[in-house]
Design brief:
79 residues, mainly alpha, 3 helices, 71% helix, 0% strand
């Protein structure tokens, strides 16, 4: 990964981490929060395709599925 690509990657990751934290703080049902975080994760993956090469993007998706969990802090899960 080149220096410019690394900067773009880090900026994009930071952007999505900030957005994720904001979503977690919003008052909404747990189910809606989970749906919103899932959509955000999909958007992040799509936008990374504009930064990474095809092999890098495939590897990124593989690592993301393995390590990045969507965690919703809840008292009870909505039915």
């Amino acid at each position: 990964m080149g220096a410019e690509q690394k900067v773009l990657f880090e900026k994009k990751m930071t952007e999505f981490l900030i957005r994720e934290e904001k979503i977690k703080k919003i008052e909404m049902s747990d189910r809606e929060k989970l749906k919103t975080l899932t959509r955000l994760s999909a958007q992040e993956t799509a936008e990374m395709r504009n930064i990474l090469t095809r092999p890098q993007w495939r590897y990124y998706k593989k690592l993301k599925r393995k390590y990045q969990l969507i965690v919703v802090e809840v008292g009870e899960v909505d039915k």
